[in-house]
Prior knowledge:
7 helices; alpha/beta; four-stranded parallel β-sheet; globular
Amino acid sequence: xxxxxxxxxxxxxxxxxxxxxxxxxxxxxxxxxxxxxxxxxxxxxxxxxxxxxxxxxxxxxxxxxxxxxxxxxxxxxxxxxxxxxxxxxxxxxxxxxxxxxxxxxxxxxxxxxxxxxxxxxxxxxxxxxxxxxxxxxxxxxxxxxxxxxxxxxxxxxxxxxxxxxxxxxxxxxxxxxxxxxxxxxxxxxxxxxxxxxxxxxxxxxxxxx
Length: 209
């Protein structure tokens, strides 16, 4: 994470994916202090909007993706985040925060606890993201859908590729370059094609085209 900051030692943290934003923000401040990064916690008001305008880097935390998208849209921060990120501000997200970097949140794992008005998200990358991907268990007697089946259902109705990231994996994008990092791989799902495995260290730059 620190390498992605490129020497920046101040971050704006966006805690909107959880109900208790104050406690979440306080916990994040303490955690980032341990690695020498000073955190400012964004609020859903004019002060928060100014934080985003002035930020060199933003970290959007995890929680419920529907809640996060609704609160970003209602606070006027969604478009501001998109514009600043496209202008060169470092954007980092975990879980729900990575979901909203995609064109839509249609491949989130979360329950729709609120209606965000639209599924359209930041669109910082041209592919969908599915974090916390779990591989099918061949010996399982569970009769419900696997994650793979659900993502294939998405592709029955949509053409956008999906990058399914296992726990412990991350994607770093710099311009036209995208690399899969971390300790776990990812699966690439495309319409009318079998899923493709990518290992840590592999390039994902072809998905930016």
